[in-house]
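Continuing the batch. This is chain 6 of the set; chains 1 through 5 are on the previous pages. Same settings as before, nothing changed between runs. Recording input and output for traceability.
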Amino acid sequence: MKIGILGAGWIAERMAETCRVLSENEDISCSAIGSRSLEKARAFAEKFGIEKVYGSYEELADDENIDLIYVATPHSHHFEHAMLYLEKRRNVLVEKAFTVNAKQAKELLASAKSKHLLCAEAIWTRYMPSRFALDKILKSGIIGEVSALSANLGYNNIHMERMYAPELAGGALLDLGVYAINFALSAFGTDIDYIESSADLYHTGVDLHDRITIHFKSGRTAELYVSLDEFTDKKGIIRGSGGYIEFENINNCEWIRTHIDGAKTVHFDVPKQITGFEYQLRSCQKVIESGGLECPEMPHEEIVRVMEIMDSLREEWGVKYPFEK
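Output for chain 6:
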């Protein structure tokens, strides 16, 4: 599978490194890089051994030898760029958050379906082995009747322009909240009763700190907190009548520890990884080879569901981006 990368920022570099290592033993490689700056694209290509260099997004779209385009531009441009490639009949893997809102997400997914193309969200935590290990632990009943979870994710990244700029769809929710919400839904399912929330807004109008409580119809609750200007422990804790589960780093799990009856512990170390991006690439490869349209780890229905939740939260907080009508 030949991959084209759109954008030459740090997250694109992580994808390029993943492809570079995978190409040594698997049929996955990065064959092209596209950037608005030809000079930047050339430097990127030289660093990661990429053959083709394009100084515009449109040129990358015209490369018929690419099997999958990875969209790694700011959230504000995901819809525009992914649609560009879908119109050129290219499969796309779009970095999280998938789009700015659910309306854009639905339109992209409908376009991909009409053209029989793969359109996937690169929310890496949905594809990782740790996600499926957690599934097994919860299904085993080892911590008894599960009642609640808490999860947090915070970094001091407010100095980065895309984090605080409304025109780039900045804010904690689309950058970090998406991970916390996905963690809660992965653990407790999607049968939501109602959601309570509050946010502290930055002077630019984007959300700086988010507090979200999801109440599920099962009676379970998920307490979530994300921050753009604080370092947090990034833990996920799932509580049950017979014990609790520690999930170390909901953004890229380092280990899972299950505490039973307050004494016994069961430890799960995640497999060694290249960057963590390899799992979503392997999933995309399987889907493309089978002629499918969505990755089972993050199906289209779930992409839209998460976007709708984030739409409702932003509406409650009064956070609207200037390009949204």
